[in-house]
Amino acid sequence: MNMEREKKAQLSFSRSAIYRMLSLFYRHPKETADELCSADHQAEWKCAVFLLSEEKEYKEKTGEIRARQGGRHFGDAGVLHRYVEETKWLPTKSGKEDFQFFEEGRLLGEGLEALIRELRMAPLEPWVEDYERLFGHAAHGAAAPYELEYGEEHSHREPQELGDISAFYEAFGLKVRNSIHERVDHVAVECNFLHFLLFKEAYAWLNDTEEKAVICAAASRSFIADHLSLWLPVFSARLEKNAQTSILKALAKFAIAWISFESLLLEIFPGSIDLPIRPLSGPEEISCERCPLPQLAEGQLLERR
After folding, report:
1. 244 beta partners
2. What is the mean pLDDT of the chain?
3. What's the domain count of the chain?
4. Which domain does 70 fall in, by range?
5. CATH number for the domain that contains residue 171
6. How far is C-alpha 256 from the geometric centre of its chain's CA atoms?
7. Partner residues linked to 175 by β-bridges
8. pTM of the full predicted structure?
9. What are the tens digits of pLDDT across the range 223-233?
């Protein structure tokens, strides 16, 4: 086995594991709590974060991650640094160029440890109540879990964007399972797609099909850059602000750290935590979020077309 291919497969598996974890967290707690509390799964997440932190350090040492916009790693005037400062989650140094938590994956690692700690202590009923209150019956809730609920109003934007997301799924022979009655831009579905895509990439690296691995890598980067990274920061910030339970607050903070870390690795700019909620232009859409997403084999929300 080529060591470079094995390393790439290992990193893809690690990223896939984190996206699967997020997909489970973004589903109804009654359906996923037992799986999330599995010690084996939690060990897998820790291993993934450790391996990715090591890769990030290597890339910085070799100069592959370059400081941009006057030394800052992030676009939008360091909004993620400001988020951490304002929420007083971790002590920070002064100056937006001094966001040093990423030097050894510290922000990501501490975020995961906090999330697992809250997960082990979280009583189920308050978690369920908070989840249902925040995500609610309507798509336009306090922490809307839909990509198209964020950004400026545009009469033609929704069908075009939903079509673009569906096209990503269809390009890899997938569609949202009919049984869950969910939109393609739900955060759990988008994370589940990235779990699948990165797992597929890792398999390709291990089986010496470099062309397929490169296609999967390009697709996952494009999907993250064009979709998930643009709205996960604002969704997570709203979730952290409005959540009443420690488990959902910890999830929001970890998601901010994760998409920031991904943006560094992929050399893309995450969206703003100040992205506006799309104004309602008609009757509020009813979502299925109050109805628990059904338990599916291996937690999959997507199926073959």
Report:
1. none
2. 79
3. 1
4. 3-304
5. 1.10.3480.10
6. 8
7. 303
8. 0.82
9. 999 999 999 99
